[in-house]
Amino acid sequence: MSRIQNPIIPGMAPDPSIIRVGADYYIATSTFHWTPAVQIFHSTDLANWQLIGYALNHGEVDLRGTNTPAGIWAPHLSYDPRTKKFWLAYSHMQNMAGREFNSDSFAVSADSITGPWSKPVYLTSIGFDPAVFHDDDGKHYAAILEWETRTGYQAPGHIVIAEVDLENGGIIGDWHRVTTGFTTRGCAEAPQLYKHNGYYYLLIAAGGTGYGHGVEIGRSKTVFGPYEPNPTGEPIITSSPHHLFSLGDPDAGHFEMFNPNSLMQKAGHGSLVHTQTDEWYVAHLMSRPLPGQKKNPLGRETSLQKMQWNADGWLEMADGSNLAKMSFEGLKDVPTTQSTTQFDINDNFTGDTYDVRFMTPYRTQAVSWVNTTENPGHLRIHGHNSFFSQVNPSIMATRATSLDYTVQTKLTFHPDHYSETAGLGLYYDSNNWLYARLCQDDTEDHTVLRVLQAKLGDRVDHLFDEVTVPDDTAEIRLDYHQGIAQISYRRTDTADWQPLGDNFDVTYLSDEGVNGAPGEIGGFTALFNFIGAVDAHQLQSFADFDYYTVKNN
Q1: What is the pLDDT of residue 251?
Q2: For a Cys staple, 533 with which of 119, 140, 381, 467, CB 3.0–4.6 Å?
Q3: How high is the pLDDT of residue 519?
Q4: In angstroms, rounded to a whole number, what is the distance separating the alpha carbons of residues 391 and 319?
Q5: Which residue among 129, 189, 251, 535 is the active-site one?
């Protein structure tokens, strides 16, 4: 039996929802302000996972203007064996100001996991993190967090369940409040229903999506409860098993719950799957902080834990503990070797399409601004808004999946105005990025390579580290090592790589480094690598990229 290393999906892959259909496994994860929305990964061995597409990729949602960390939250995959349809429920978080958390939830369906997916069916606006459960009598139920806004009531609210009308939308009957959590960790959210040996089991996330995060469980003989808490009084999976009392706290980073003895932190928000080998696993999110820090550039990643049912009918980790581990036993009689290069990227743009892993913040990808057809063998990106924009930035990005890697590209760009730029960099959101770009020298008579930085919304132009670029063509390389970035370049008239400026401290490009209030997480969306272009002149310039590679060390 093989041992598989966590995370199984590194980089931004939070809130994993796992299902099995036959011998195929699928995981859907949150995407927030990134498009296309809702990543869907596939595996046959639980060890090797490939991004096969997105559920919302035909303009179903408009994410322009989305503030960090709103957008598309906590997708939930399910499969209805009666109709043989895949279902995906999700929340579109539109406003978080005033802790009002205005979110509309929908469901889409498809006959194939690769789509096409149906038009969204409206479910509710009562809260966020919806999950759909298909009962064996043909009825369908939705479970979700009912967001609490009343002063003096336990936040973030109740977990509620209702019968749902998947054909026409909305619910049948009333919402039933079933719990505010099964332990004292508080912040109950992300409810998911399962049925096993005559019981309905309710799996929920708790403790806030920080260092006190965990997976809790309760059970009932009827779908609307009452639900009996797991008798241990503690999460069944967590990175920090120390007892936590946090009732009434709507969410928190809980930095005091950091476990110095664990490589894995923030384990929580779980989803259960029963394998064809009659085994049980929970997929859950996790984080890996920078050494000696509590900042997580890679955001929340996806891991698995092997589970078992104990003699009293409660789900627990296979080793009897509740401490999430960095490795787990793979499927019985399914030999596997976990690839060490599956998350590297090497795209030479020689085909009609580009790598499916490219994502775009806020706006949708369209051939009008990004394509491989206008100059075959290249990815052409037409410049648009400044990267401070949450509307139309021309950015093509991929998730950072290691704390030690190299990203590299070659581009040709002919700027004829100082507000036209193109290049490569690191990106968190519109207020936080690092950008090595070709642009005009301030005298407007030749092209240079220079670094521009956004740090907590401030603009920093590194004026004194520019280098002239003959022929308007250069290769740019960025070496990232545990929060430190070094930028290098190679011109057409040189054979060797040369450094550009000093090392850059980019530890702030992390979930905790982007304007988090004390004790809170600033974002959930993790670090990306990108190529892109800006044109705040006449919207006529474009850059041609020869290749894009990411090599994880």
Answers
A1: 82
A2: 381
A3: 66
A4: 48
A5: 189
496 is catalytic: no
Q: Whose structure tokens read 């000696």?
A: 292
> How far is Cα of residue 499 from the mean position of the Cα atoms in its chain?
32
Q: Report the alpha-carbon distance of residue 77 to residue 56 in Å, rounded.
A: 13
Token pair for residue 502? 């000093």
Q: What is the spatial distance between Cα 390 and Cα 79, in angstroms, rounded to a whole number? A: 35
Name the active-site residue from 15, 301, 347, 535: 15
Closest listed residue to residue 212, CA positions, set 242, 188, 191, 190 = 242
DSSP-derived secondary structure for 356-406: TT-BEESSPP-TTTEESSSSTTSEEEE-BB-TT-SS-BEEEEEE---SEEE
Helix, strand or coil, per DSSP, at residue 98: helix
Task: Please write down the long-range contacts of 438-446, taking CB distance under 8 Å and 24 or more positions apart.
Answer: 438/411, 438/413, 438/469, 438/472, 438/474, 438/543, 439/415, 440/415, 440/416, 441/466, 441/468, 442/418, 444/417, 444/418
Q: For the chain, which ranges sit under pLDDT 70?
A: 1, 516, 518-519
In a 10 Å sphere around its CB, with 0-12 CB exposed, 13-18 middle and 19+ buried, how is residue 141 labelled?
A: buried
Report, in angstroms and rounded to the nearest whole number, the Rg of the chain calculated over CA atoms: 24
Structure tokens at 332: 């019985």
Cα–Cα distance, 249 to 235 (Å, whole number)? 17
Element (H, E) at 92: strand 85-95
Q: Which residue shows structure tokens 């990267």?
A: 387
Q: How far is CA 176 from the centre of its chain?
A: 30
Q: Which of 485, 530, 489 is nearest to 508 (CA)?
A: 485
Peptide linkage before 69 cis (omega within 30 of 0): yes
Quote the pLDDT of residue 522. 87
In this predicted structure, what is the pLDDT of residue 1?
Answer: 67
E-strand ranges in 275-349 read: 280-287, 301-309, 315-317, 327-329, 345-347
- The span from the CA of 518 to the CA of 60, in Å, is 35
Pick from 465, 340, 455: nearest CA to 404:
340
Q: Which two tokens stand for residue 212?
A: 């006190």
Give residue 248's pLDDT.
86
Tokens 């060797």 sit on residue: 496
**Is 189 an annotated catalytic residue?**
yes
CB 321 within 8 A of CB 307: no
Task: Tell me how far apart the alpha carbons of residues 46 and 5 are, in angstroms, rounded to a whole number.
Answer: 10
CB 128, CB 93: distance < 8 Å: yes
Q: Which two tokens stand for residue 234?
A: 């503690």
Q: Containing H/E element for 161?
A: strand 157-164
Beta bridge partners of 514: none
Q: Is the dihedral of CA 38, 239, 205, 308 positive or negative?
A: positive
Show the 3-state SS of 428-481.
EECCEEEEEEEEECCCCCCEEEEEEEEECCEEEEEEEEEEECHHHEEEEEEEEE
